Amino acid sequence: MIDRRALISGLAAGTAILARPGPTLAQSGEIRNVVLVHGLFADGSCWSEVIARLQAAGLNATAVQNPLTTLDDAVAATQRVLARQDGPTVLVGHSFAGMIVTEVGVDPKVATLVYVAARAPDAGEDYTALAKTFPAPPASAGIVFDGDEGRLSEAAFLRDFAGDLPPAKAKVLYAVQEPFNRALLTGKTTHAAWRSKPSFYAVSTEDRTINPDLQRFMAKRMGAETIEIKSSHLSLISHPDTVAKLILKAAGRR
């Protein structure tokens, strides 16, 4: 098991290396594109409220339909969408999709990265082991499996995943949640794009799906520009204005 105190003490020593600047917006050119990737228990429509705001600001926004089968499949799906973009792109990941953003973000088209209550592993890091150095979030106990197919129970979805949404809206989201394959959770990243690309992180302070202190640790470790939102895990739905503003900032739209 990873020693949490060793991780934290080593953080300060490595800050200068980990936070070294990536390419500037001027070097990358004007950013017109945003690619958004969803995590577990959701699909691409979870970005709808954020997308509307990005489009109103003149950006081209595309949501990836993450297959939730294996990390390799999810990476490939994101790479296909990224390949269709016509220039510099902000790559955004929510929750599990932070794994995908971290891996795919080394692509030359990616100018900046945005993590929304998301995993942010280092290259080759065992994220599960890292997460276990922090108290387990309540949602973990609500995952149920039918063979290799996992999902959140209704009670856990409403209470621990979408806790700050109106119950009627949360029930609709529960009804359309996309199950994930157990194999998805065994994948490890081979790259850590946040080491070379400017990164932004939105911490959900009331999160019961990914421990907020784990989010803060990952954001600090990567040297990300960080905001905190008093939100459940679904800040992209409960606080779309705030999340969209962070993405706009990452795109150079102040």
The name CATH uses for the topology is Rossmann fold
What is the straight-line distance between the termini? 42 Å
Question: What is the CATH superfamily?
Answer: Alpha/Beta hydrolase fold, catalytic domain
Structural class: alpha/beta
In total, the number of domains comes to 1
Shape: globular
What is the CATH class name? Alpha Beta
**Share of helix, binned:** 25-40%
| Number of H- or I-type helical stretches | 11
Rounded to an integer in angstroms, the radius of gyration calculated over CA atoms is 17 Å
Strand content: 15-25%
Mean pLDDT: 91
The gist of it:
This protein has helices spanning 4-18, 25-28, 48-56, 71-83, 97-104, 127-131, 154-161, 167-175, 212-221, 235-238, 240-250, and strands at residues 33-37, 60-64, 89-94, 110-116, 143-146, 149-152, 180-181, 199-204, 225-229.
Describe this structure in words.
By secondary structure, the protein is α/β, with parallel strands linked by helices. It has a single domain, classed as Rossmann fold (3-Layer(aba) Sandwich), CATH 3.40.50.1820. Helices cover 38% and strands 17% of the residues. The protein has eleven helices and nine strands. Helix 3 packs across helix 11 (240-250) and helix 4 (71-83) crosses helix 5. The longest helix is centred in the N-terminal third of the chain and has 15 residues, at 4-18. Residues 1-28 have low confidence and may be disordered.
List keywords for this structure.
three-stranded antiparallel β-sheet, 254 residues, alpha/beta, 9 strands, Rossmann fold, six-stranded parallel β-sheet
